[in-house]
Amino acid sequence: MPQVTFEEIECKSALNHINIPDMSQLRWSLNPYRGCQHACVYCFARGNHEFLGYDTGRDFNERVIVKTNLVPVLKRELRRSGWKREAVTIGTACDPYQQAELKYGLTRGALQAFAAHANPCSIITKSPAIERDLSILLELSRVADCTVIFSIPTLREEIWRHIEPETPKPSSRLAALSTLSEAGVRCGVMLAPIIPGLTDDAENMETVVQAARDNGAGFVGDNVLYLKRGTKEWFMPFLRETYPHLLPTYERFYRGAFAPKAHSEDVTAAVQRLRERLGMTPNQLPSREPTGQLQLAV
Q1: How far apart are CA 289 and CA 68, in angstroms?
Q2: Rounded-to-integer distance, Cα 208 and Cα 91, Å
Q3: Which CATH superfamily is domain 5-280 in?
Q4: Is the previous residue joined to 96 through a cis bond, with omega within 30 degrees of 0?
Q5: Residue among 157, 98, 156, 155 at smallest CA distance from 128
Q6: Residues 6+ apart with CB under 8 A from 75
């Protein structure tokens, strides 16, 4: 287990406004932490650690910024007369239930604030630790829209161990999905990122979509891997060491940040066929990042 440093700061604002025309459903985000102990090799938020003067590799995994006053600041912002109770997405740039949450409880406090103000929100996580807050999620669901989205790119443990080294097992996420769904919380799954050569085959994608449906997901979204600055510099050496046979493909695919449009469209179409066959709906929230260079990790 890596030695993690928690850098405690006070934030000026909790809510981050996102003003992107083609993402009208995602106007506000909230991130209790910056950096993430889950250490996913593909995480698109790695580049944002550079703004803090840290590197996007081990520093991102092991130097976690904690917004210690996030909850009182959020409560103040929710009380403002101009606030229109717009939906807020928690976890657009870090996992709000990473290991730091067990120490600080900032996500739990934020959910309590949203419940008290009947403010809709969604949560994106890879952690079954969210089950701890089931009673709060149910309380929130009674007064406002509340959606929990579990990120599950694969159920293959040999791949999971490499790409998401400090995350809980995908099977434990499915178990948490089932628990929350059965209790009455609206849940979905993001099949993301879909990684060329590792998780974009038909068998892997069908397995995830089928498991999502069987465990109570109301929808499945998808997103093909993109490699922005900060992420690419960390991901490519990982690929060279762990899956060297894929290097020629990635050197061809990722001259920029995004995979070729034709490949992404083929993958999206394949997932849509799976959804239709298994009776699932698409993700009802926008993907974390459109074709532009949106920055969410504020």
Answers
A1: 27
A2: 21
A3: Aldolase class I (3.20.20.70)
A4: no
A5: 98
A6: 113, 116
Write b or e for each residue in 108-118: b if 16 or more Cβ atoms lie within 10 A of its Cβ, otherwise e: bbbbbbbbebe
Q: Is the peptide bond before 32 cis (omega within 30 degrees of 0)?
A: no
- Tokens 């449906």 locate to 213
34: left (phi over 0), alpha (psi -120 to 50) or beta: beta
User: Regarding beta strands 5-9 and 63-67, do their DSSP bridges make them parallel or antiparallel, or are they unpaired?
Assistant: parallel
Residue ranges covered by each domain of the chain: 5-280
Residue 64 has, within 13 A of its CA and on its CB side, a CA count of 27
Q: Is the pLDDT of residue 2 over 90?
A: no
pLDDT tens readout for residues 193-231: 999 999 999 999 999 999 999 999 999 999 999 999 999
